[in-house]
């Protein structure tokens, strides 16, 4: 009975009870988190979410469970977005460009006053780590659901955070602890540290404003691009330089701290599968950490949080080498994109915890209460072409969209629906697909099934790449690092290479939709209930269950044709289309805006020389000459918006 006399003790018992119920309901483990809501624990009547897309929807879901009214903000192009429809109220804060809407502090502050919101949840990105925004809210008596401005300032500045980490006895990467003034000073510092080095934005995050440099020329170029991206994304172009740890793992620790000096570490997340320093696939826990290393990393993360009097959910990121030496990378003072996998293995609702902490309540758990229950994997589903640099942005309208929520142990965090537009203005993420299992093997099998059952039409997406990653022998064995993608696909991702058996199965299935045939002299038995109106075709091929998606448009993974004998004979005599000479022309590989054009007609350019810079989703991409030649014509200028395949420059 003692546990029921203590409010904190009662909460712990209730938490444990609810978690068990969620895990074992109907005998199936489900990929969920537990919002233990005590109606006597008053928080806020109304919360404004200063964000968009899937994270805004995620916050609204927990607010609804807690009985809290919500306010959505949106740009004019997002007026029909899912997060706007989910919220109790919505306020337009400006036109599509983020600087005029989701980063428009004045407009968002007006929305707070207009709606009478008592608190603001910033989500991630945008204003989530902006100390000025937190200060302005505090001045109006509105609660910022996140840490205080001191912690945001200290951890948001990578130079200051590294000094604080050293003082808190957290392992740090060797490097220059000051602000780099210009490109030549960057070269000097890089030479003193020793190549390779990482050039990165002091106020940055999310892979933006980061470049790896292996020589002086790359350092000069990296300084220019990193400072431009940092200014565009964060309004702060300061850079720092540190030693690049070659071939590391990227492993992070989730922390949770209240305003009473209590702090916990909620285990780790393995985030090593990346492209352009941005995460693609994450899992919790990591296959690499042993209990001692996990504890050491967790304790250092908590030590850092306490050093800055941190209060909220936050993430301390580490680089881990092959000998399990770990080094502090940065602390994200916000809810992390990949937080769902931590919720799956701990049963905690991190948004709920953030709201409680912001109101001033103590943590309900002790460190010994934090479990590792099962395994969770997250795949970031993007509107990107994975065949171009592992993912260049794709835009368009979702003509057909079907999430695999019919499967058990699957969670999809999304903020879009059929008919939604994917535009050049915002991050190309479609959703976070999460699967859960008692073991890693179960979670991986479920992810494979979920990806096969995910229907996305109207935009190019990265599911083919995600599908290949999670079944690759190196990934399955846990032999990964941040170099996984370039090492496994040194010439870029080319798609799945069919085995002879898979080829026969695919051809037979295609033919079965048309007429029964033999393939390569072998009979292939295809059976199933054909419903050509459905996006998914569950079939059986030679006794094996398969899920097929049939797409008549350009987004198919394998393009197949069924021809009559006559048509097949005549097709041999059709002239082949001559491929375009890509060495003499430069086309935009993605939709975006032209940041700079470095040449004019008549200029002589060398192979590899920069011709122009295209920005898409806040990432800048240098377009270079494929050969040494004279510039014949230029078809773009700074400020132009270009589409995928648009002609930029012609060479003689």
Mean pLDDT: 88
Form type: globular
Strand fraction equals 25-35%
Helix content: 25-40%
Strand order of the largest sheet: 13-12-9-10-11-14-21-19
The separation of the N and C termini measures 87 Å
The total count of strands amounts to 35
- Radius of gyration (CA) equals 26 Å
Content-based structural category: alpha+beta
**Count of helices?**
19
| Main beta-sheet annotation | 8 strands, antiparallel
Low-confidence stretches: 1-30
Protein name: Propionyl-CoA carboxylase alpha chain, mitochondrial
InterPro entries: ATP-grasp, ATP_grasp_subdomain_1, BC-like_N, Biotin_BS, Biotin_carboxylase_complex, Biotin_carboxylation_dom, Biotin_COase_C, Biotin_lipoyl
Keywords: Acetylation, ATP-binding, Biotin, Ligase, Lipid degradation, Lipid metabolism, Magnesium, Manganese, Metal-binding, Mitochondrion, Nucleotide-binding, Phosphoprotein, Transit peptide
Enzyme class: ligase
Structure description:
- With 652 residues, this protein is α+β, with helices and mostly antiparallel strands.
- Strands 13-12-9-10-11-14-21-19 form an eight-stranded antiparallel beta sheet, sandwiched between helices.
- α7 crosses α8 (158-167) and α14 (440-452) packs antiparallel against α15 (463-471).
What order do the helices and strands come in, and which of them pair?
Layout: H1 2-5, H2 7-24, E1 46-49, H3 53-65, E2 69-75, H4 82-86, E3 89-94, H5 105-115, E4 119-121, H6 131-139, E5 143-144, H7 149-156, H8 158-167, H9 183-193, E6 197-201, E7 210-213, H10 216-234, E8 239-243, E9 249-257, E10 263-275, E11 278-284, H11 291-307, E12 312-320, E13 326-332, H12 339-346, H13 350-359, E14 375-382, E15 384-385, E16 392-393, E17 396-397, E18 400-402, E19 410-414, E20 421-422, E21 429-437, H14 440-452, E22 455-457, H15 463-471, H16 473-477, H17 484-488, H18 500-512, E23 518-519, E24 522-523, E25 526-528, E26 536-541, E27 544-549, H19 565-571, E28 585-587, E29 592-597, E30 604-605, E31 610-616, E32 619-624, E33 629-634, E34 641-642, E35 647-651
Parallel strand pairs: 1-2, 1-4, 2-3, 4-5
Antiparallel strand pairs: 6-7, 6-8, 9-10, 9-12, 10-11, 11-14, 12-13, 14-21, 15-16, 17-20, 18-22, 19-21, 23-24, 25-26, 26-27, 28-35, 29-31, 29-34, 30-33, 31-32, 33-35
Helix pairs in contact: 6-7, 7-8, 9-10, 14-15
GO molecular function, one term: ATP binding
Protein name: Propionyl-CoA carboxylase alpha chain, mitochondrial
Subunit structure: The holoenzyme is a dodecamer composed of 6 PCCA/alpha subunits and 6 PCCB/beta subunits. Interacts (via the biotin carboxylation domain) with SIRT4. Interacts with SIRT3 and SIRT5.
